[in-house]
């Protein structure tokens, strides 16, 4: 089995996610892009785990999933709270905390 | 004397240093601490007691120095009953300073020299206190005035009774403080406040000499007590002796208003007149003469410093006399004469054992007649609504007969008219000066002539001639409480000369100053006395033909006068010199230092702060608040990390 394809796919997904985070304004979409990056890294971890025949990468992938789940809970709560008070889900509008 | 004779160390010059070897005080003499304690108590009660002591404060203030005087008289009687070598007694009071092995005791030394000073300070001081009861009767702060007078007397008594230069220094500074407070007693007047500050600052210069001298003694001899220093002096190098002598002279110049530190004395006339009398007669200016005479065991080993003392004395006696000629302010004319007379004393003290006793003798007689004349001037001012301009007086003889008579006695005494006290004392000083060198003698002789001239001028302008009173001024004789001290002082000025009869005062002071030395004169003393009297009469005659003899006195000092007169009016440019040499460069230096502080030190600090502030202001702009910018930054950072890691692992 060739891990190169998996790694290429992982890199593509990560790049798409990263670009999405940088260019999209809608907080939900940005959020989904962050998830995409996390899962791209998960894919890479699992691929390496498989290639090296060790379980470390898979354990790490589980940790990432747990963190991602917790992040979704907190992040979505914040987005909903901001939307309720400001009637906007744009990340550029939530720029009060600055110099 | 046998015990002393063994310890006397003869020098090449023939002078000797007399060591101080006091015995412990016993019997009545153990009460000597009371002399200092009484006025100190008076000062404490009156200054701390506040307004509740107002009704009786002046009486209490008078009682304290009188009490001291009584104790002093008793001690004097005790000392008189003793043999000459047993007349030095010491009373240890407490250990004052203790640093490791070194310690300084606070002790009082009563010997013939300090005894005479105690009597002068307490005696004349008491008379001035009594006079002040009348003079300050209408002043709301009379009680404070008496408290400060007591403080003045206390400080001066500490100065003359301490047995250690450190103790002298305590009194020295106390006198400076008290004079500052009293000269500036009417501090609501700008001129008085300035004069007080000036006196204090000029005195600080002299105090510097005193403190460095004490440090030098402790560093060199390990002690600053008279006994210790006098015992160690014979083994000290001449350099040390000269340094000590010059430093002590600097100190004496400050307190005694000698050139070059004379400028404060004339301005000090801003204080109430009794203060001037106290400063000039009993306390303060006599301190310098005391210091020089007391330090005879130092000066015995340093001809250089002795010569310096003589020169300072000679210059001051002439400068003071010349200034006295040009002043229309009666108090300033008298102040000039004080400088001049103290100059005589310094001159005598600088001559050495041949002159010490005469310096002290003149100091005593001067204390009598100068106090009398200052109080007389105060009486005149009291009668003329505090006018001090002699051109506004004239013919006060009839209006104030007692003041006139007492002032006249003081006048005859100061010009040295026989048989008044000043005749004896000044005569002996001029004689000793001629013995030291003809230039000193001639200078002192000329000084006597000028003294006669300007004192005649004061006399004629004030009491004789025509009435030049201002409108609304009705001169009247002062109350009894003021005239009584005047009469007592006049009697003392008249009979003070008896102290020299049979050489009493030289014999009395011998345990302190060493035996009097005979000096060679170019003529017999009697002829010299005749010459001096002729010069004095010449001065009186010039004064009479200039200001008396039916001449009219201009209402204002003539403006178009010779340079010499202008110089004398400007105190021989003493203030101008101080301003040009010290004050202006001092101000320039201050400005320069301020510039360095403002522009360079502060500039560096402020620049650094501005740099940090500015750069953080710029860095702050990175916080835009846009989440996506942060994300890009993070991505960039991550990329740099990855590239760097790769670069390191691949090479």
Characterise the protein shown here.
The complex is a heterodimer of chains A (99) and B (651). In chain A, helix 1 (3-23) runs antiparallel to helix 2 and helix 2 runs antiparallel to helix 3 (56-86). Chain A has helices at 3-23, 27-52, 56-86. Chain A has three helices and no strands. The model of chain A has no long low-confidence stretch (mean pLDDT 92). The relative contact order of chain A is 0.14. With 99 residues, chain A is mostly helical. Chain B is mainly alpha-helical and 651 residues long. Chain B has helices spanning 2-7, 33-49, 54-80, 112-135, 142-161, 165-183, 190-221, 226-232, 238-256, 263-267, 273-282, 286-294, 296-299, 303-326, 330-351, 356-383, 396-399, 401-415, 421-436, 438-463, 480-495, 504-513, 525-547, 563-569, 574-620, 627-650; strands at 9-10, 16-17, 23-24, 89-99, 102-110. In chain B, the strands form two sheets. A three-stranded mixed beta sheet of chain B has the order 3-4-5. A two-stranded antiparallel ribbon of chain B has the order 1-2. In chain B, helix 14 crosses helix 24 (563-569). Residues 1-15 of chain B have low confidence and may be disordered. The interface between A and B is medium-sized, with 14 and 11 residues.
Q: How many DSSP H or I helices of chain A?
A: 3
Q: Which consecutive residue ranges of chain B, at least 5 long each, have pLDDT under 50?
A: 1-15
Task: State the major sheet of chain B.
Answer: 3 strands, mixed
User: Fraction of residues of chain B in helices?
Assistant: over 70%
Shape of chain B: globular
For the largest interface, the chains and their residue counts are: A-B, 14 and 11 residues
Percentage of residues assigned to helices of chain A: over 70%
**Percent of residues in beta strands of chain B:** under 5%
Q: Major sheet of chain B: order of its strands?
A: 3-4-5
